[in-house]
Amino acid sequence: PAGPVPVLQTRSLTLRAAGRVLVDALDWHVHAGERWCVIGRNGAGKSLVLRALAGLGVPERAGEVLWQGRPQQDWPAIAAAATRALMPQQAQDRFALTVERTLALSQVVMSSDSRNASELMSALDIAALAARRADQLSGGERQRVALAQCAMQGAALMLLDEPVSFQDPAHQQLVGRWLAEAASGGRAWIASAHDPSWIGRVATHVLALFGDGRWQAGPVDEILSAAVLERTYGCAWRSVEDAWIPL
Fold it and tell me: Most buried among 102, 144, 212, 213, using CB within 10 Å?
């Protein structure tokens, strides 16, 4: 019998930008409960992939993206918002809203997260920011608010562009613990990230982009190897007590 329908599937997805093929014929699927990290050098196409998966405009694309077995372009806007949530690298606040109000406006479908916004704010260490304006927060604070916004949206798929790039070490650990629990109840997430050690603690799977169109996807223990990391980043690596160190 056929298995469960993937939360997300790509069929021969090809992405080009500035005359370069960044992703060539990506055939890939993500199931509920999976936690994927996308790795690659700067300019390898990580953000471009997330935009394409979210259904946003990219310079040039071919192939197909399906959400829950249905072509991306067939989803009405409100149904798409209930299906996938995107956290960009840097949030753009157009209005001077408090954190509490920003989160309330992010709700699309009712979920355990949206019913327990106070617990969500506590888990991401933003409860003390509830009455502050979102556009006046530090980069790390605003990034954690953006994560909470994704959770509040209630979508089955969260697409996160470098969710810990502005976090101090303690908050990197906190966000990592939260993400490790966030893919549950039919959810999955895909995040771009750079630190293989952090990825090894948080992700179940990795998609490596090699910058020339080629790619490799699989379980985290299979992709986080010295050979694949060297091919991805162009430098040698070694593992020391479960930490990856570039040479």
Answer: 144
Give the lowest-confidence range in 47-51, 120-124, 183-187: 183-187
- Given a contact cutoff of 8 angstroms between Cβ atoms, the answer to whether 155 and 109 are in contact is yes
Q: Residue 208 and residue 205: Cα distance in Å, rounded?
A: 10
Q: How far apart are CA 73 and CA 80, in angstroms?
A: 9
pLDDT of residue 92: 80
CA distance 107 to 120: 13
182 close to 174: Cβ distance less than 8 angstroms: no
Asked whether the beta carbons of 65 and 10 are under 8 A apart, the reply is yes
pLDDT for residue 223: 95
Structural contact between residues 206 and 39, judged by C-beta atoms closer than 8 angstroms: yes
Residues 120-133: tens digit of each pLDDT: 999 999 999 999 99
Angle at CA 190, nearest 5°, toward 180 and 164?
Answer: 65
Distance CA 150, CA 182 (A): 11
Rg from Cα positions in the chain: 18
35-to-13, 31, 70, 207 alpha-carbon distances in Å: 20, 9, 21, 11
| Token pair for 85 | 């949530």
Using CA atoms, how far apart are residues 189 and 182, in angstroms rounded to an integer?
Answer: 8
pLDDT at 1: 54
Centre a 10 Å sphere on the Cβ of residue 184 and count the other Cβ atoms it contains: 11
